[in-house]
TrEMBL record:
This is Mannonate dehydratase. Coiled coil: none annotated. It comes from the Bacteria. Its cofactor is Fe(2+); Mn(2+). It holds the Pfam family UxuA. One of its GO terms (biological process) is D-glucuronate catabolic process. Catalyzes the dehydration of D-mannonate. Keywords: Iron, Lyase, Manganese. Pathway: Carbohydrate metabolism; pentose and glucuronate interconversion. The gene is uxuA. Belongs to the mannonate dehydratase family.
Length: 393
């Protein structure tokens, strides 16, 4: 696979010359300064592409070309926004970029409750706790009837949290769930918003009463509308699985498991409609057999996130070592190398280690942690390639 790295543009503290030194071949990025829903112009795309190329790398994948909420909940302006999306796709193609990662998660792109959950070895990882999330939902957000969605065990944990959480803890939880994990991925809420919880409530209201079937239908509508453009300009759309891969906040999630993946691939049965195989997101659900999913969907996968999660008996999960957890990254490397040794791959997140936390990197996107993971994955790939008789680049 092509060794790529998510880079957040010229303002990223991690520079392209640093990445060149650690074996990165391709860059995964987006026009982070263009507001959601606006057309990406050829000039802006070209400027960034040429900058990346001046460091001897290529712009391999766009992550993400954001799909506006209004397209997801079928707002009155969705057709207008879809036209703009098509325009951006066309401009990217004319600049030689053909792989587009996006997601169809309502409101919240990805969710974690703890961004520095300590490991025994002194590193820390991103973590998701059902009890903390339920506490956020029921006691901070105060979503109507939220309690109905949680098990008795989780609600008992929430009661305990009510006794122990300080205002500072509440603040940190809000930051973790709706600010720090969202802003930098072109989310709806940024560090500059003064009332993130209020804003978040308004966003959730947009989806009031939406069912899984309706959300699926909205995804089918979007994909069908852009497919002629994807065909004409050879654009490979790859949806990112929902992270975590189960419903949260009373909202449906539609890219969480075998049945969901099979549904959206068939709903618009065109090779340009494909998957980002995020082993991290998929392995966070105990219902997923990640290796089987990779075997089944490798031929419609256009981008891979090599990451693994450990799931605890109560469903909480932590981001594991790239050599551990539920996703067997060695077997996944075999499957994807056999299917297409040029498939772009990134290690996704890495642990916080050796001072990463003091640097203020985006949550999950550390330098040393990701570099360490990248070294491990490079080793896996070199071994698998030797096994398969594939020449290393
Ligand atoms: C988080 C990421 C997501 C992902 C988007 C793709 O680290 O996996 O933000 O980039 O959902 O649209």
């Amino acid at each position: 696979m092509e060794k790529t790295w998510r880079w957040f543009g010229k303002k990223d503290k991690i520079t392209l010359s640093m990445l060149k030194q650690i074996g990165v071949e391709g860059i995964v990025t987006a026009l982070h300064d263009v507001p959601n829903g606006e057309v990406w112009t050829r000039e802006k795309i070209r400027d960034l592409r040429e900058y990346i190329e001046s460091y001897g790398m290529r712009w391999s994948v766009v992550e993400s070309l954001p799909v506006c909420e209004s397209i997801k909940y079928a707002g009155p302006d969705r057709d207008k926004l879809i036209e703009k999306y098509k325009e951006s796709l066309k401009n990217l193609s004319l600049e030689g970029i053909h792989t587009i990662c996006y997601n169809f998660m309502p409101v919240l792109d990805w969710a974690r409750t703890d961004l520095a959950h300590p490991n025994p070895d002194g590193t820390s990882n991103l973590f998701f706790s059902h009890a903390q999330f339920a506490y956020f939902d029921c006691c901070i957000l105060k979503r109507e009837n939220a309690e109905e969605q949680y098990s008795q065990e989780v609600l008992e944990e929430v009661e305990k949290l009510k006794q122990t959480m300080t205002p500072e803890d509440d603040h940190r939880l809000v930051e973790n769930i709706i600010v720090k994990t969202q802003g930098f991925v072109n989310g709806n809420i940024s560090e500059n918003d003064e009332h993130p919880v209020e804003l978040f409530r308004q966003l959730l209201d947009l989806y009031k009463g939406i069912t899984k079937d309706q959300l699926r239908e909205n995804m089918r509508y979007f994909l069908s509308a852009i497919m002629p453009t994807c065909n004409e300009y050879d654009m490979y759309m790859c949806v990112h699985p929902d992270d975590p891969p189960f419903p949260i906040l009373g909202l449906p999630r539609i890219v969480t498991c075998d049945d969901d993946i099979s549904w959206f691939l068939k709903a618009v049965d065109d090779p340009h409609n494909g998957l980002t195989f995020c082993a991290g997101s998929l392995s966070a659900g105990a219902h997923n057999n990640v290796t089987e999913l990779a075997r089944k969907y490798a031929d419609r996968t256009w981008f891979v996130h090599m990451r693994s999660c450990k799931v605890f008996p109560n469903g909480d999960f932590t981001e594991a070592s790239h050599l551990g957890g539920r996703a067997d990254l060695i077997e996944l490397a075999r499957i994807f190398e056999k299917t297409n040794p040029n498939l772009p791959m990134r290690v996704d997140h890495g642990p916080n280690m050796l001072g990463d936390l003091d640097k203020g990197y985006n949550a999950g996107y550390t330098f040393l942690g990701r570099m360490f993971a990248m070294g491990q994955v490079q080793g896996i790939l070199a071994t698998v390639d030797r096994e398969l008789g594939i020449n290393q680049k």
